[in-house]
Amino acid sequence: MIPEKADLEKILLALKSNSSYDLSNYSLNSMGRRFGKIMTDFKIDVEDLIVKINTDPSFSEILLKKITVNTTELFRDPKIWINLRENILPLFEDRDEIRVWHPGCSTGQEVYSMMILLDSMNLLEKAQIVASDINEDVMDVARGGEYKYRFNKESLKNFRTSFQLEEKIFRDETKKYFSINELQDVLKMNDFLVKKPVYKKIDLVQNDNLFGEKFDIIICRNVIIYFNYELQNKVLNLFYNTMSDKSCLILGLHESIIGPYSSKFLKKKTVYFKS
Questions:
Q1: How confident is the model at residue 251 (pLDDT cuts 50, 70, 90)?
Q2: What's CA 180's distance to the chain center, in Å?
Q3: Which one of 45, 79, 119, 258 has the lowest number of neighbouring Cβ atoms within 10 Å?
């Protein structure tokens, strides 16, 4: 049951009026599907949903956690990580510090993937890692660094592919970064990785001046694809102003920079460099 455009706009207006969240510039198609599922799950229609938003302050947080997309995995899209290892991170080896920001970090597998990659190149010690999301629940998972092993088992193949390792060497390599308990279905990141990032709750839509520092690498994959054109440019402006000189932005494979910010970045393979 996907709400009509007019009904969806009423829902988004109610949410904006009763919370700090403005989703009006998110993709309407994406929002329609998500609110349709919410109405099905709660067995309510548009009118009842709006009433609940207007009368129950805590419901907005529940909605937000159901609406936000939290699909992520270790070393998703190996060619991204191979390119980072072979062509991008070597550009930062001589810097005294490497500042990395993961906006929309979700449950953190991408954050851990980046830290593992940095460590393998002896760059983790001088890296500063910031991870952010609008959803506190998924960041709590990221902070804990503990995942279902069976859910992540297939993504370990991406790890091996990204590092292009033989099986025995791969098994030894993984022990440096996480432990696996198949019986308890647990994949647990090692403490030196868990303790490294700083996590912040950040709404990319609402925040303009986020940090007093610039970042060298921003990894924001499969986030702006859910924004409309106007909001994409607002977020790209935020990223651009938060990036240091000769820094880079990594987006998802199906995301691209179009419009006014296309001239402000130079694309090389899957990476956008600030020009």
A1: very high
A2: 24
A3: 258
With bands split at pLDDT 50, 70 and 90, how would you rate the model's confidence at 144?
very high
- What is the reported pTM? 0.84
CB 199 within 8 A of CB 132: yes
Indicate the helix (H) or strand (E) that contains 38.
helix 28-42
Identify the weakest region by mean pLDDT among 8-12, 93-97, 204-208. Answer: 204-208
In the chain, the percentage of residues whose pLDDT exceeds 70 is 95
Token match 């279905």: residue? 185
Closest CA to 101 of 223, 178, 215, 228: 215
Q: Within 10 A of 110 (CB to CB), how many other CB atoms are there?
A: 26
Q: What local confidence, expressed as pLDDT, does residue 242 receive?
A: 93
SS (H, E, C) 193-253: HHCCCEEEECCCCCCCCCCCCCEEEEECCCCHHHECHHHHHHHHHHHHHHEEEEEEEECCC
Tokens 């279902």 label which residue?
148
